[in-house]
Specification:
The protein has 493 residues and is of the alpha+beta class. It has two domains: 239 residues, Aminohydrolase, N-terminal nucleophile (Ntn) domain (Glutamine Phosphoribosylpyrophosphate, subunit 1, domain 1); 184 residues, 3-Layer(aba) Sandwich (Rossmann fold), CATH 3.40.50.2020. Helix content is 28%, strand content 24%. A hairpin with a 2-residue loop joins strand 5 and strand 6. It starts with 19 loop residues before the first strand and ends with a helix. The chain binds adenosine monophosphate. Keywords: 4Fe-4S, Glutamine amidotransferase, Glycosyltransferase, Iron, Iron-sulfur, Magnesium, Metal-binding, Purine biosynthesis, Transferase.
Length: 493
């Protein structure tokens, strides 16, 4: 979900992108506790806010939402006791900056003709502002500034009778990336956009829990609740889970699959399996490809923790150069930590990373990280490693250069702020202060994922951040109000 670019005077967002995690369970003992655990395992997908909506056995909904980490929001026994019921959906929200108002915290909830519906969305819609303008003109009153709210209004105005048909009607009008979990008093619903850009998996709890179905952004959330992985929800598939079991609907026909390749590189947790491929092994293979493509004589391979670790292991195994934890990460740096004052800034306080001097001093070091976005991290780390006595510092990156912004749900700054959008590799090496810099090639990345090379006609993944190949139209960005869906336009709105 993403705050919508401001189209109205009451809109106060700044248009930054967000990433998220979703979880849902149907008919299990203590659904809220399972959901809190699932959200905890998905904390890396969103640290700003979390929410859970449950459906009680009497048919009423209960909700709790808060700003902060899952453990802080749902660690309170009183809060959990209030979240009654055997069915639940939950959401983690991520935003590096931007509006943090509680009204934007999901799951969104609304009462419709057919009853209550809670919706949790991971992804980013690319025609949300266009839709919102049309909906507002029609009289819809938006309560939040997230793009996800357009789902709620499209469902509300749909002329179809039942909730699943209304949802399908809504999904046919939105463009962009979405993995959704929704809960109403008849079913838990999961849905993935036609290209399957964002992940969504289906699992099942054991017999002791009545074999309840679970939906989650990643398999690591199934593992934590002891659910067995069944399968990925397919691109364009809607799964409806109720007391009769699971029903699959595919209203979009078969199109190209474009799973986000960056989930493998950085975003997903390494112990998750995405689209049948374990993330950890993929990251190691990317590291090995990188070593083959960009060999350099060195004494030690050092990962930039934590995201660079598996790729650095793969690099070390392939190159035969020893692996060392030459940089130590402090895991307790919260967002709220005070910035060093000017008086102590001269100490060169590094809150997040510090050099492990004995592993670096006097050595030729290969640093491995997953990506360079603005270049700030690389610059700081290279400098730190040099100060710790490294003789040479070579930077190796386990993704191709990030030259384009993501509009499908990964937080990236606008293009002008991406180092690789403005500079070639040599210039970037100079800017970050490295003796050499190399990125994995696009084909090398595809090789690590089991393909001979990137097939430009049908790559199978969304790699727009590296190629600019945006497979889903960027309607809001490109300003195409004529692309307002037929239903809204036909009503003269
Ligand atoms: P930068 O300092 O702007 O070049 O950012 C690069 C660092 O940010 C790398 O160490 C990545 O692990 C990390 N990173 C890459 N993409 C993201 C993202 N979407 N959100 C947060 N961190 C990221």
């Amino acid at each position: 979900m993403q705050p919508l670019p401001s189209t109205n005077p009451w809109d106060d967002d700044d248009g930054f992108h967000e990433e998220c995690g979703v979880f849902g369970v149907w008919n299990a003992t203590d659904a809220a506790a399972l959901t809190a655990l699932g959200l905890h395992a998905l904390q890396h997908r969103g640290q700003e806010a979390s929410g859970i909506v449950t459906l009680s056995e009497k048919g009423g909904f209960h909700a709790h939402r808060g700003l902060g980490l899952v453990g802080d929001i749902f660690g309170d026994a009183k809060v959990m006791a209030g979240l009654k019921g055997r069915c639940a959906v939950g959401h983690n929200r991520y935003a590096t900056t931007g509006e943090t108002a509680l009204r934007n915290v999901q799951p969104l909830f609304a009462d419709f003709e057919f009853g209550g519906l809670a919706v949790a969305h991971n992804g980013n819609l690319t025609n949300a502002s266009t839709l919102k303008r049309a909906l507002v003109r029609r009289g819809c009153l938006f309560q939040s500034t997230t793009d996800s709210e357009v789902f709620v209004h499209l469902i509300a105005i749909s002329l179809y009778a039942n909730v699943v048909d209304r949802l399908i009607d809504a999904l046919k009008q939105v463009q962009g990336a979405y993995s959704l979990v929704a809960l109403h008093d008849g079913a838990l619903i999961g849905a993935r956009d036609p290209m399957g850009v964002r992940p969504l998996v289906l699992g099942r709890l054991g017999a002791a829990e009545g074999g309840a179905y679970v939906l989650a952004s990643e398999t690591c959330a199934l593992d934590i609740v002891g659910a067995e992985f069944i399968r990925d929800v397919e691109p364009g598939e809607i799964v409806v889970i109720d007391n009769n079991g699971l029903r699959s609907i595919k209203p979009f026909g078969r199109g190209q699959s474009r799973f986000c390749i960056f989930e493998y590189i950085y975003f997903a947790r390494p112990d998750s399996v995405m689209e049948g491929t374990p993330v950890y092994g993929t990251r190691k293979r990317i590291g090995a490809e990188l070593a083959r493509e960009s060999h350099v004589e060195a004494d030690v391979i050092v990962p930039v923790p934590d995201s660079g670790v598996p790729a650095a292991m793969g690099y070390a195994a392939e190159s035969g150069i020893p692996f060392e934890l030459g940089i130590i990460r402090n895991h307790y740096v919260g967002r709220t930590f005070i910035e060093p004052t000017d008086q102590i800034r001269h100490l060169g306080v590094k809150l997040k990373h510090s050099a492990n001097r004995p592993t670096i001093e006097g050595k030729r070091v290969i640093l491995v990280d997953d990506s360079i976005v603005r270049g700030t991290t690389s610059k700081k780390i290279v400098e730190m490693v040099r100060q710790a006595g490294a003789r040479e510092v070579h930077m190796r990156i386990s993704s191709p250069p990030t030259t384009h912004s993501c509009f499908y749900g990964i937080d990236t700054p606008e293009r002008e702020k991406l180092l690789a959008a403005k500079h070639d590799v040599e210039e970037m090496a100079r800017i970050i202060g490295a003796d050499s810099l190399a990125f994995i090639s696009l084909d090398g990345l595809y090789r690590a994922l089991g393909h001979a090379k990137r097939d430009a006609g049908n790559p199978g993944y969304c790699d727009a951040c590296f190629t600019g190949d945006y497979a889903i139209p960027l309607t809001d960005l490109e300003g195409h109000p004529e692309r307002v869906p037929v239903l809204l336009a036909a009503n003269g709105q």
